[in-house]
Amino acid sequence: MSITGNYDHYHRSGSTGSGGPDRPERCACCVRTMKWFPVLFIVSVIGWSYYAFVVQLSFFTVTSVVQRILFLLFYHLILIMFLWSYYQTVFTDIGRVPSRFRVPRSELDRLLRATSEEEQKQILEAFAKELPIVTRTLNASVRFCEKCRLIKPDRAHHCSVCGVCVLKLDHHCPWVNNCINFTNYKYFILFLGYALLYCLYIAFTTVMYMELIWSVSGREGKVDGRFHILFLFFVSLMFAISLVSLFGYHCYLVLLNRTTLESFRTPIFRYGGPDKNGFSLGKLNNFQEVFGDDRKLWFVPVYTSVGDGVSYPVRCFDEDAESLLSGEMASGHHLHHPSRQHRNGHRVGGRHNDYDGEVHHHQYRNGSAVHSSKRDPLVHRVSDNDEDDDEDEESVFETTVFSHSANLLH
């Protein structure tokens, strides 16, 4: 990490260029409008599917009144939950980093005047002393966003599409025109689940009538609507196949308490080094961290997630257990042996290595401390090939966006 020489980036308001101030504003407005096209596409497909299922299938094809009522009843129940989850995912505000993480102008000036990366690391370390952060960059420095000029909380990343740092960023999804993050991750999982259920329900109910709608002896209007029902079956089947993999992958991430970004880049902890499972507290606790403690609301798209999005309980490393298992340090590295307990009012993990410094706690909403660690010095060597954090995240965004597009258009 080096910000030396970026004085203009921090202290100039920015030039409008030769095109004048109106041209960038018009371009930005066009870009914002185009971002809604994928959402409009999804809404259009849902609207067409409603017409094909309710009108063409239920009223013009199904002859049994009882079967028609059951079809429409279950269809509308699933549709309501599907649209409710999608609305929450699209229109829930992203989790923004609190102001206390923003580096003041005086500290920015000191960073710019620093003559070495080591001095910059010490300045950021001193400022972040009171902040509840346990993760570091590749070169063991505090995670600092040059664009937003703030210390990144644990699991927060800069979204290159939204232009801000977002709490527990999973990825930016163009199909909802929003970041999937701490505030709407539960809604996103439910959206995928109900979308899959919606597609499977349509596919299974329409397949029973595929032979009937192509028969010559049919009611008037059936032949005109048979193409709607035929396309409805194949479109729902294709979307279902795509959603199975996407929904299954995110269920897997929920059970491991891992984001898409963290599956691409392993979080680096100041006390234990890189650990993909550093935030994992056990499958049930991981599930409850996203869906909450009230089982009646697990599958309802209302906010029940645990925590504040800034600090998270983490696995601890029991030094005594390591000594019993390994007897000694192997090749200069500790063997990771996390010791965990249930998070409801108890510490999660064992005792940390004895570092000098101030103790801080992560807490859940009930006020019970679930993690305690001590301040430690920098524990990793400075890497000569340390890459810029935001640039790597943008490449993950591109990979994730491509993956979503490929899945939905499979």
Automatic annotation (TrEMBL):
It comes from the Eukaryota. Pfam families: DHHC. Residues 143-264 form the Palmitoyltransferase DHHC domain. It is an enzyme of class 2 (transferase). It is a multi-pass membrane protein. Signal peptide: none annotated. Its main location: membrane. Coiled coil: none annotated. It is found in: Membrane. Keywords: Acyltransferase, Membrane, Transferase, Transmembrane, Transmembrane helix. This is Palmitoyltransferase.
